[in-house]
Structures
1.
Amino acid sequence: MKAESFNQVACSPLRSSENNFQILNNPLIRTISGITMIACFMIIIKMGPAAIFMCNLLFITKSFDELLKIGLKTYQCSSIRKAFTLSWFLFVVSTYALVGQSIYDEFTLDLQNHLILRPIIKYHGIMCFSVYTLGLVIFLANLNNSNYLNMYSMIGFVHVCIAILIIPFSMSIKYFSKGIIRFLFPLITVIFNDIAAYVIGSVCGRHKLIGLSPKKTWEGFIGALILSPIFGYSLSSFMCKFDYFLCPIKYESNQNWFVIDQCQKDLIFHPKEHRLTENIKISIEPFQFHAFVLSILASTLGPLGGFIASGFKRACGIKDFGNTIPGHGGVLDRLDSQFLFQVFVYFYVNCIINETIENVNYTSTFNEQRGEKKEFFKLLHYQLVHLIENAKA
């Protein structure tokens, strides 16, 4: 196939039907779907960490399904059944390899007590690599002169999808295991930012923000940038009151399930008084400062991920990734702002928040030890003085 004709195929329009387009632009349906998703989201949070994890995995899988349909049609592989099967094979293997490794890293001590899981954890890497290599062998065995470019383009597309979807998901497990607040707070903040930008832009938007996404306006962007830190500050204050959001997750061998552990709150979640003037004091949790920073960054990195997704849709001539959610499009249309921000949150939590917690806990422990030493020397001094006075008498 010539490069020119291939480019024409790669950018061929994949447009939804007119009825679907009208449904997706119906504000009433969009609002009802949004409220339904929020209600389901609250129920899932109530069900616990395992339900949150499984829901996230389901969304990632559906997002890959939406991207795969676009890739198969764009690279003219829809009629090649083995391309479809191989793509899912690589996705499942990569998901197990990356996500499984993150789970094993975080819960090794708990999971190794399980007799069945112990050898699986030990040989996880070599097993995943062997199965992945088998997939590449199958890929090479199904090449022929008529589909070289299509198949290699498709296999490259699948790996890009895996990198975009699975790597952020596996990284999020690292901080999700330390406490649900580390995962839910950035997620909810980005969702709020999207809603705020959409509502403000729809009501008073006049100036387009970027050509890739005509509905994004400067008014919506600036409005969301102002409201998101206020919302994030309030949300963090609310979440810091509940141990459910703050305590780490552990694997309970008796239940064979992941549950919230019992813990003492880190000092970063305890209110701390700050004196503004002689008569004015405020009490805030140190985590609220990080929440304020994350909320501002959610208003910038979140839309950036959305713009990248919008550019991809324009390149493929589509309006939405799918029509799974009435009024919103596909699952990926709702998650496109999350992936880039999840990667940033991983580094922010590990390099700044966790470092702050360690420093605060170390300082607190050091002060406690110093206080205990002072009490010891006071008691020793008292005993020595008492002995001397008795000797003189």
2.
Amino acid sequence: MDFIEYALVHYRWIFVCLFLLPASVIYNCLFYIRNRVVFMFSSLPEKHDQKVTAIQKQVREWRDEGSNTQMCTGRPGWANVSFRRGLYKQKMKNININLVDILSIDTEHKVVRVEPLVSMGQLTSTLNPLGWTIPVLPELDDLTIGGVIMGCGIETSSHKYGLIQETCVAFELVLADGSLVRCSQSENVDLFHAVPWSHGTLGFLVAAELQIIPAQKFVKLRYTPVHSRADMVKTFTEATFASAKHEFVECLVFGPEKGVVMTGNMTDTAETEKVNHLAWYWKPWFFKYVEEFLATGEATECIPLRDYYHRHTRSIFWELQDIIPFGNNAVFRLLFGWMVPPKISFLKLTQTTATKKLYENHQIIQDMLVPLEKLNEALDVFDTETKMYPLWLCPMLVRSKPGFIHARGGHDDMFVDIGAYGAPRVDDYQPLETVRRLEEYVRSVKGYVFHHDSDACGQISVRGKLL
């Protein structure tokens, strides 16, 4: 059994390359064509109303049957981007929710109305050619609007706008009694503030309205390599608080004392020789490309806007290197890079029990928000517990307003998301104990842990995440 488990993990790339990559390409093409046709014929509002009515009917049937079990969406656990397997769905009443469309784009009022299963890739491919975008756009293609609203949505513009919930105008939900309710800043206000981070506990999200802002063609991105922890924290902090100067801020940490801080702004003009089309399939994976600046020094270039938004998609941040170890090889990129990445849902669907167990025991996927002033201390904790790099740093403004996540003390606070994805390098890694210690640290500094991560501390941890 040990040999089989080893083979399933270390040679899974054979199955991924031969089957999952082609299947992902076919699925993406068919879904893209379907979306374009549906949006072109603009029959969505009528179809949307019919689908919502069907959801209400399912909920009322559940009530008529005695409400003996809890409800959840019928979307299978393997279909989402979360590391969690969603086994709880097997014991609940599954409500089928097939809401995957962009309903309307109102450029006069600067609002886009979407269904909850609209993905980030779907949104940018529709909005960007029209000259629009949303202020906070999480970077992986397959993340959905419903997921980032009900869970958490952060991006490199969050130091300016906050979480994606801060850019939402209204939500439409089907409640447990089967009623359809709209909530906003002016109607059902308590519900409006309670929806983000609620993870579907208050109702089924059936539509959301988000702010849109004018989009420009490129992001002018500056790479600043730093070779000491002090310089890293100082450069990153200064860039974070200069929100009027920088629309986008992030840092990739490549070791205890080295990283690359990136700051960017949208622009419509770019010199041809300074344009880098990151999304071209033969290009290096973004995190590998960024790491080169540690040796070559500071630089500035222009990246097409959509390429920038989805810069971490092709390598799924850096998770894909553990599945296809040679995936960033120039020859592989040239021959097969156009098929990358495999859909995360397909990767989860085809996991065997042994593979799931080994990933749970040898991988960590954690996003933890800590106050920005605790960044240096937090990096020490992550280094001690995981010795895993790269780490992703993304600043986030937490506003002093109602909701599950809010600033304390009556004023806005600046936090930083520390994203750890991959295989820890510490000796004798114990996933449960390590995650528990990380969560305990985050709670001790009054931080937050994203709920899509593995939760080692049970109800105590949940209270620490939300209060």
